[in-house]
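Data availability (excerpt). The following record was deposited with the supplementary files.
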Amino acid sequence: MIAVAPPPQSTRPEPLIGSRISELKKTVSASRLNCWQTCRLKFYFRYVLKIKRAQSAALFVGSMVHLILQTWNLARWRNLPFDLPSLKPKFEANWVEKQKDQTIRWENEEKEQKKTSWSLLETYFRQTPIPVNERPQAVEVSVEADLAEHGLPTLIGVIDLVRAGGRVVDFKTSGQTPNAERAVHLNETQLSSYAVLYRAAVGKPESGLELHHLVKLKSPKLVVTSTEPMKPYQQTRLFRIMESYLNGLDRQDWIPSPSPMACACCEYFNECRRWS
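Predicted structure:
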């Protein structure tokens, strides 16, 4: 017979948890919705209990790549000259600076991950479909959409890039080459959220949506997936997901969703095993 230790009880007082749930119901973001869809128990640990964990190497690499791409896009937006070698010192400095206030789970591979990060950027600037002289509409812009008329919270988010003509772009790093149809499907919540945010800010539909995947292979590559503007049924699906989010918060529906892929890299695996 196997003896199992009783799960630890939360030390957070119920009024505090209730207060955090109330705050989470006022606004919602694509990242929160994605976490909610992936695993509600993970959402509970991350957003309600606010348990802090060391950042994974993959997430840190993604943030560094985003930072340099943001610098490049801002230079184009300001009509400043762009030179890839001039970004290397900024990359090196931020690689150190961004680790001062957080712990990264490197697992003895920091040097290799750093090399990979810069290789991804070099690949992007060689293969990007965006002309150097194309001036963006917006770069890393914080946007919100008041959805009270639909009985929903305010949608908030930061759009990576809006290209000339209103094409919304999201940058991603990946360990494997994405399938176009699957990539659009897996990222539909995020893409639809950005479409709603863009329309709220500009007052008209986006001209299209793009996923720019920087793939971390031995020979890195860029995969661009383009899709049409958000369809009405996609907005309806997004709003139904948001309704599920609100209803689940009201019920405190912290149900785990075990899966080989998600659990393998989840920072809350030990808490999940002890959950009751």
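Summary of structural features: The radius of gyration is 20 Å.
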